[in-house]
Amino acid sequence: MSTKFKYAASFSIAATFITTLLSTGGSHAAAQSLNTPAAITATFISQPVVQPTPIQAVATATPGAAIEAEAADADSLAELVEDTPIPATLSNELECLAGAVYFEAKSETLAGQLAVGRVIVARANSGRFPSSYCGVVYQPSQFSFVRGHGMPAINRDSRAWQTAVRIAKIADEGLWKSPVEGAMFFHAAHVSPRWGKTRIARVDSHIFYR
């Protein structure tokens, strides 16, 4: 073998060895970049966050939120009563509250009906009377319309009953203050019991006391 051929062969082997080393090093760097946790994390964080649409937010709102919003927007008790929906079915408690409003004050103004309803709510929350509306209404010797443990028949198709139900809902949820807020007792204006209680005011045909 000539000297030129030896040099050429040696140079070829060296070039092949260097190329192999460079090729192996490049593959190892690429593998590192694919398996680095920081790169994956950065990609995940960069994804856009989807916010709920206003329709979704309304759909997940609490059931009472719409009524509270209407109460805030109402300019009068009459407007609030008109905007208050009537439930498809009434709970026993709301039935008792609406019945008391109906029999005690259905011929009175909305303010007078609400005043009666709020007295029953105040009693149930006071700790001095039964803790339920039905317990308050059916407590012996409290309401003259009660016969035994029941009420007379109610014309449920009448506007008076529908108004009483709406007033009961408003009184129960505290959506509107009565003109005698905080009253715990009342009686018809044509009687004069010697109660010795603090009189608040007269509303329609009832006088209210603390």
What do these coordinates show?
- By secondary structure, this protein is mainly alpha-helical.
- The protein is 56% helix and 6% strand.
- The protein has nine helices and three strands; from the N terminus they run αααααααααβββ.
- It has helices spanning 3-35, 37-45, 54-59, 63-73, 77-83, 92-105, 110-126, 133-137, 159-173; strands spanning 185-188, 199-203, 206-209.
- Strands 1-3-2 form a three-stranded antiparallel beta sheet, covered by helices on one side.
- α6 (92-105) packs across α7, α6 packs across α9 and α7 packs across α9 (159-173).
- The radius of gyration is 40 Å and the shape is globular.
- The model is unreliable at 1-67 (pLDDT under 50).
SSE layout and pairings?
Layout: H1 3-35, H2 37-45, H3 54-59, H4 63-73, H5 77-83, H6 92-105, H7 110-126, H8 133-137, H9 159-173, E1 185-188, E2 199-203, E3 206-209
Antiparallel strand pairs: 1-3, 2-3
Helix pairs in contact: 6-7, 6-9, 7-9
